Amino acid sequence: MPTSRTARPTGSRRTSQSGGPAAKRTAAPRPRALTSRATVLLAVFVVLALAYTYPIRVYLQQESQIAQMEREQTEQRADIAATAKELEKWKDKEYIRIQARKDLYYVRPGETPLLVINDPEGAARDADQKAPAAAPARWYDTLWHSVQAANAEPSN
């Protein structure tokens, strides 16, 4: 039994084809960075990504529209609730009387209506009542008066 490192029998060892010493190793050319198989795979991924962008955009747009419609629906429900509450008020006869007195100035029989108008600008205007200013003369009246004044001047 041989005590060498190799466990191969001597007949199975590699030798050079010429029968001489073992062949010298040479550096193999490096493979290209992107093979044709990798290029095709990359192209398929790009096409799939482009194919899925439009449906995803449509989906997100529809989700946005749904959220907006739900907000509008919530606002409409709040408006409906407020209107229903206002309608309940109008079923009360006393509330109708109060609104008629306030908005339409209705009075009950035997009452004297008194309407107070809060107009501080009008009150200040009335306190300073001056004679209305004369209307400015029209341009042709001014011209005619100047002609008459020139005619009336004594000649020397």
From TrEMBL:
Residues 1-19 have a biased composition (Polar residues). The keyword Protease does not apply. Keywords: Coiled coil, Membrane, Transmembrane, Transmembrane helix. The keyword Ribosomal protein does not apply. InterPro entries: FtsL/DivIC. Residues 1-31 are annotated as: Disordered. The chain crosses the membrane at residues 34-54. It holds the Pfam family DivIC. Residues 21-31 have a biased composition (Low complexity). Residues 59-86 form a coiled coil. It comes from the Bacteria. This is Cell division protein FtsB.
